[in-house]
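Write out structure tokens for VOC domain-containing protein.
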Amino acid sequence: MASAGRGICLNHVSRESTDIKRLSDFYVETFGFEQVENPKFSFDVIWLKLGSSFYLHLIERDPNAKLPEGPWSAESAIVDPRNLPRGHHVCFSVPDFDSFVQNLKGKGIEVHERSLPDGQSKQAFFFDPDGNGLEVSSSYPVT
């Protein structure tokens, strides 16, 4: 069974939004993503790339969709990142954690910070403009 995972890697994460331009600007300004060419669809999309192989696909929300936005969305009354569910986020490791977090706060982004029991790893949780959960980490434990 262990061989089943060989050669598999994460390709992209997608986020649906009513304003993909606003969301794109956030990820470009906050994390340094760059916009890349994308195929044409019958709806608007923006593809962003970080590093050599990680992509973020921002997809125009279908105005006729019956599905509501997630409970932690921009339309939700809950905006405190301390309430971010454990399983509802994407995490990025950042080389200068403290400067990165200060930059977020300087932009008026509400941040919840904590240190892991090892005393060395730090985490900060926050939301993008559409209410998607994000985490930045000073290190990523390898097991």
